[in-house]
Each structure stands twice: as structure tokens, then as C-alpha cells.
Amino acid sequence: MMRHGGKILSDQLVKLGVRRVFSVPGESFLAALDGLYDSGIANIVCRQEGGAAMMAEAYGKMTGQPGVCFVTRGPGATNASAGVHVAMQDSTPMVLFVGQIDNRQTDRETFQEVDYKAMFGGLCKWVAQVDTTERLPEYIARAFRVATSGRPGPVVLALPENMLSAQADVPDMQMGAPAFATAGDMAFSAVIADLMDAVAPLIVVGGPHWSAEAAQNLTKFAEITGIPVAAGFRRQDYMDNRHPLYVGDLNVGVNPKLAKRVRDADCLLLLGTRFGDIETQGYTLVDPAKPHAAIMHCHADMDEIGRVYAADVGIAVKAPVAIAGLLQAVASDTPWDMHRDWAAGARADYESWLEPVESPGAVKQEEVVGWLSENLPDDAVLTNGAGNYAAWLHRYFVYKQHGTQLAPTSGSMGYGFPAAVSASLEYPNRTVVCLAGDGCFQMTLNEMSTAVQHGAKPIVIVMNNGRYGTIRMHQEKHYPGRVSGTDMAAPDFAALARAYGGHGETVTEGAQFAAAFNRAQASGTVAVIECVLDPKVLSTGASLPDQD
Q1: pTM given for the model
Q2: Full set of structural domains in the chain with CATH
Q3: What's the confidence (pLDDT) of residue 298?
Q4: Could you give the 3-state DSSP secondary structure of residue 56?
Q5: Fewest CB atoms less than 10 Å from the CB: which of 94, 375, 429, 497?
């Protein structure tokens, strides 16, 4: 049966189980839009390609299946590159389809022509251009395999417009059964033996592939071994933070006592995490040249094991497979007793870190986040982008179950709101809250109309201190008294939300917040609560002087 390339593409996506795509339309892929018309795949039409790509990335984080995004050539692709970078650094499966010029006009600097292999070569796992309509199913199937294999990540496929509009008689590609990496019992037994011999072991979890079942297995393994568990950067929902063996997260503003625990550990079990520069504070907590602790590293990608830290035991499997294998290797439900004091001390360090440090002003971020932690449903999804405001969320919010944190380990500003829109579409019956700074939110707030159009209803809490707070903090440290390029004007966020058709409120006193949040939730649409902060607010442990 003859089909144009756009129809071949959409039929292949249906076969691959794609339910939703995110896009900004362009004339370079009109045939693909036509193919999507009656495909049954929801097309979430966004306002800017960066937001569309971030929504697709968030979908990949939530589901473990590739988030799919369509953008046009040239400016569309360059805008979308921000989301591709997030997917790469966060190990998130994603496929970006980019409209391309007529391939018969290549190398003439045709209107909006870009060499995508050169542009995306270092930003994604694989980039290719499909020049023959008959090979579309092959390329698409391979793109999905690459995006989900080993360490997941983004794939970019360029689609020349003449290729998409051409007709071909070609069957859809069969994906085949997925390949699963396994490890022998001896490898897991070696890990167990080292853990039993350790005096001060620590488990660090992170990376992709985690599930509710894996989180439960992690908890059971920790309970049997008595070993404390620390979460990698922005992976705090991999274990119930209320559990006595959860001891905090290794983030930018890490608890100094947890950092000391990493330095004092004699055995580190790394499950899924790359154990990168954020978790190690720029590789200072553990010296790559001479680690002070035995390192056992379980990661889905063999190339990640030994990339920075030589592993005493390395097992190339997904984290859920590793934790299931370790549970089986323990072979007994009898709890170990040798790590009790070490674990209790680490937990006490974490609980003392949760004690609020008062910040200046009538609206205090520690109180707002504390209220959210105590009052939101256990399955509420929290999203954020980048900025000092996030430090309050990381420090004071207690995550209760898997699948409730969406945040960029890449440190991308503007991510939180598109991620919240995507989460609200995926989980329409769950509370979705985006915490944002005034700078972070202004990067992608135009997606409010996307939320209204498609029925997403996240609640955005904007912490407004009138500046790019993280950069100002660094200025105070390195160039005190010389403020440059960090002060910022902002709109009336509440009025802007109403202009988009959403709900908006402004909070100037902490006592106003609970009622404002309840009204926002009852509105049944996208809502913005602007929290007006004292200009002296800087970080969870520092404020600007009064004369500022």
C-alpha cells in the first residue's frame, strides 16, 4: 500500500505505542502533521520548541518510554536543543524529529539549512538524516532502540520535506523483543561479601530505569542490610524519605554532615547513578585517582563503569535488575546488625538538616515548602528548574513515593513549568506542583496557553526575589559589592496567569499561602501563586545585608 512519508511515520509511531507527542508546527514537516491527523496520537501544540522538548523529556522521565517531539528546521531545532541537552545529561529516552530542507538543495545554504549531524553530534546519543522514504520505518525503529538501550538518552532524526511528502510501499518495522542484561550470582555475592565486611558502607542511588517496584526492593534491601541510603542529585523520590535508613540527597547545597559521611564511608554501593560531579562536590568527596572506599558500581551502560572511578566490582545491569539480584544474594530476611550505629547517626544528621533555618521576610520559603510537604498527597508530583529557590525544595520537602520528582540534573532553567504541564497531562487526577523562581518561570511561562488549551492544571508557585539569585550568590562570594547583570524586573504573575485564562494569586504574608493554594487547586485550571520574597533572601543559609 502506497503511503506518503508522514503517514509511514505516524503508523510506525502507533506501532511503537506512542500515545502523545509534543510539537511546534512548521512547514518543513507538513506531511508528518497530516499523518498525525487521524492517527489517534495526541499532539500537544506548544508555544516554543524549548518548552516542547522539555515536555517530551519529562514524559520520558515519567514513563521510561521515549518522549517524542516534532520541531521545524533551523530556529526550531536550535530552540529545541535545550531540551535535548536535558535528556542527555539526565539519561532520559527521547526522540526529536526535526523537519529539514529538501535534500536535493543541500549545501547551498538553503533557507534555514543546518547540518544536524554537526549540530547535535555531541548533544545526543545518535543523530541521523532519513533521505529515503522507504527507510523511514528502519530509522524510526532504530531511534527508539538507541534511545532506550544502555544508558538512555535522546536521538535526533532529520526529516527532509521532500522525503516526507514522497510515496512509498513499505511495511512497518517490527521492533523485536528487548534485550535484557543479566549478571551472574557470583557478582552479586561479591557485593554482599564486601558490604558485610564494611564498617561504614553507604548506598547511593540515581540514574534512570527506576520504578515503584525497584524502590520497594531498595527499601527491603536496606532494611535487611541496615545500610543507609543517599539519593543522587534530584533523585530524591527513589526511597521514602521518611524511612529511618534514608539519609538525604547529594545535591548542590549538600548537607555538610552527609558530605562527611561520604568521605568517611569505607564502601560505596552505587546503584544506577553515574556518581558525577554534583554528587561528589566536584570530585572532592571521593578522589578519582585514589578512592578512599571500595566502590561497587551497578549501571546499565558498561562504558559508565570505570569512566571516572575504577570499580572494585562492576556490574553492567539496570538498577532494578541489580537491586533484585542483590536481594536474592542476601538469601536471608534476618536483619544485619553491624551497621546499626553508623546508619542511626546518618539518619540523625538528615533529620537535623530538616530543621528550618529562618529566612528574612514575611513570606518564608522554608515554611511554604514545609506546608507543601505536610499537606500534599503522597503521590503529588513536584517539578522545578534551576535557581536558588530549588535549594529550599531539596532540603525541606520530604518525598514519600517513587515518581513524584521531576527536575533536571542538567541544571536547566525553565524546565519546571513545561515538565509540570507534561505531568498534568500524564496524571490528570494527581496534584502537580511546579516550584519556580521569577527568573526560571519567565523562561517558559508562555506555555501557560499550552496548558489551558490542552487541559493541564499544574499549580505554579513563583518565588519572586527580583533577581537571578544563584548568580547573585556567587557574585557576593567572588565579587562582593559589585552587583552586575543579576537584578531583574518581573510582571504581575497572578494577573498574567489570569490573562492566559488561568487562576492567579499573590501572597505577601506567609499566613495567606494555605488558603491561596486551596483556591488554586479548586480552580481546576493552570494556576500561579506568586510569593513575594524579601529582597535580602539569597540561599537557605545566607541573606544579603540590610543595606542592599
Answers
A1: 0.93
A2: 3-168 (3.40.50.970), 185-353 (3.40.50.1220), 365-543 (3.40.50.970)
A3: 95
A4: helix
A5: 429
